[in-house]
Design brief:
The chain is α+β, with helices and mostly antiparallel strands. The chain is 32% helix and 38% strand. It has a 5-stranded antiparallel β-sheet, with helices on both faces. A 4-stranded antiparallel β-sheet has the order 9-10-8-11, with helices on one face. The chain has a two-stranded antiparallel ribbon with strand order 1-7.
């Protein structure tokens, strides 16, 4: 059973290439977290490869893998974006964008040929990437009097959340980030300290 607070993505951009009947398919995979980031990359690559026949893409965002899109960019419907997205899905990846740029080689590939080529190019880019697991983290902000600092810090040390932000004036405020499945225990332990308030 896969834990719902872990997801897979790629560590860094990666590239792949496939040649099919003189058509060249250049695939680029990027780790992304927002649609804005995706738009910027698409603009950049469409400008960079302005002389290519097509720049098709697919992306998947969010640990729940609910935000996704596939675009054929002028290729016959379902022959480019879908096979690229299919590779993202078969590797269960998210927070990823794959762009496949096609240079037409003069020979028509037909629907099944296109599907195979886009699928193979996307698979090459994924194969060249380092796949990493990330945890879905949650944040918790607490406020407390300075006298409680030692008690709070002891729990923070034992539970191991990341301290995202902290301020210590009059009232102390601390924002903690920890893997979703560990949050209930952290919250429960902090709330047991008399005088610690959780703000979220």
């Amino acid at each position: 059973m896969e834990s719902s607070d872990v997801f897979k993505t790629i560590a860094a951009p990666a590239e792949g290439q496939v040649t099919e009947k003189r058509s060249k398919f250049l695939a680029f995979a990027f780790p992304v977290t927002t649609v804005d980031e995706i738009k910027e990359l698409l603009d950049e690559y469409q400008k960079k490869y302005y002389d290519a026949r097509h720049a098709c893409y697919a992306y998947m965002l969010g640990h729940e893998r609910l935000i996704f899109r596939a675009n054929d960019n002028g290729e016959p419907s379902g022959t480019a974006g879908k096979p690229i997205l299919g590779q993202i899905n078969s590797n269960v990846l998210t927070d990823i964008l794959i762009i496949v740029v096609r240079y037409f080689g003069g020979v028509k590939l037909g629907t099944s040929g296109l599907i195979q080529a886009y699928k193979a190019a996307a698979a090459e880019a994924i194969a060249a990437a380092t796949i990493i697991e990330k945890t879905v983290d949650e944040r918790l902000t607490i406020s407390f009097d300075y006298v409680l600092m030692n008690s709070v810090m002891r729990i923070v040390k034992e539970e191991g959340p990341a301290i995202v932000a902290q301020t210590f004036d009059g009232d102390c405020m601390m924002t903690l980030s920890i893997r979703a499945s560990l949050m209930p225990r952290l919250r429960q332990r902090l709330e047991k300290i008399n005088g610690v308030r959780t703000l979220d």
